[in-house]
Request: fold
Amino acid sequence: MPVWAQQADVDTLMKHIRRLSSEEFQGRMAGTKGYLDAAEYVAGVLHRYGVEPFAGGGSWTQLFEVETNEVENCSLETYVNANDIRDRYVLGRDFVCAGMTGRGYADAQVVFCGYGIDHAAFNEYASVDARGKVVLVLTGVPSFLPSKVTSSYLSLRDKARVARSHGAIALVAVNLAESCRPDEVQSHIFSGFGSHQPTFPILQPTRRCGDQLLADEDRDIDSTLALIAATHAPQSYLLRKKMAININAQYSPKAITANVVGVLKGSDRRMRNEYVVVGAHLDHVGMQGETCLFPGADDNASGVAALLETARLLSQPQNRPRRNVIFVCFSGAESQYLGSQVFVSNFAQLHQVDAFINIECIGNGDSIAVLGNKRFPKLWQVADRNDSLYVHRMVHGFKTLPKGDAIAFSEVGIPSLVFSTFNGNRYAHVPSDIAENIDRTLVQQAATLVIRTVDELCGGDYQGRDPKSRQITF
Reply:
């Protein structure tokens, strides 16, 4: 049966999603054994489907270095007097560590410093003494301040750098992100630019936990936010309670990780020098302690599963593409899309790539969003046509640019699209991003649209780039 008459097999998709999001791979954080085991699984599936390793010597992997921090255990307690019963908070339920937290022990009084800003126009440290204390802040920045004031205080590393410059011994940043429910922890590997502070602990409680931390204090989070918004002035103060924090984390500035790269050779010898690249990032945000697992079923086991299903259908003899198809599972996406940058910088045939198709989180949402029509309308029309013929789930009315791993490709002129979903961030970087929460119908439809789009691109009629544009220079 030709690929245009087929759709993605949802049971096969879910099998890959369940496996990749299982405890076996420990959240697939780049630079860890769990990630490398997942990469080996993906390479094995591609090999079974008839895809060949792209690199010489039969290697599937494109190795590079990435910053990695593995949190082995962590504890958080609060108390007022030394002899009081302590309130103990649970890692993975009440709080997580920042992706690039330092290790260490802190037991001290707490000072609340708003958003953690130290600027002449808005100094939240001016009226308090943070020396030898734990600094408690909120994520984000006030909306009434201009970006020239707030740009240096956006990330956790920014806030930690400022707190430490005032003599603090740890930072606790309450998560106010709209993308996360107030009672669920959320983790990010990237904590901002700048050097690692190896002995400076950084914790991120949930919004609900933040309310508990400020219980019986002068002000809670809501009243503090209201005061800051109303007065446009800092509302810092010294808490009555103390915090005891203990973190054991193993940091590596240059851990080894790898992209997985394979090729399905085209059947038309006249097109042996033409490529379509299909990509999806394999890495996620890992695991903290022994029980706090971030499975990453939607992000991005769903995208990898669609890539594998594309390989399975296109490798069947009756579907063999005329152009070559490169399948690449990127690592380091959670660290500012390092894997795609490495691939683009080292792929010798880059000037022969006619299109890049990226698959990113297709397991939840209202509809299918295909990003890139503002920059590459001709390529987007291929996806739109296949949606109108087979799937009928694409959202329209938006002009968008490629994002994520597609940025590296579009920046060198390669026509690129990102297949994702609309309103699909319900499970972004949280422990409940599990296979059971995947929308089976949506993931099947999105994968089917990817497969049929790639099939058309590999058929030979699509001419995505002017021959003159094939002369890429760096």
